[in-house]
Amino acid sequence: MLIDLIQLRTFVAVAEEQHLTRAAERLHVSQSAASAHVRAVEERLGSQLFVRANRHLELTRAGQLLLQKAKILLNEEALFASFARELRGKMEGNLAVSTGSDPGTHIGEIVTALRTKHPLVTIDLFARPSSGARKALKSGELDVGIFLGRPVDPGFTFYELSIVHFRVAGPVAWREKIEAADWTELAGLPWITPSASSAYSAMLAQLFGEKDLALNSVVRFEYAAQGRDALQAGAGMMLMREEHATQGEREGHLAISPIAQTQFALSIVHQSSRKNDPLIQAFLEAARLVWPKMKLTKA
Question: What domain range is 183 assigned to?
Answer without folding.
Answer: 163-265
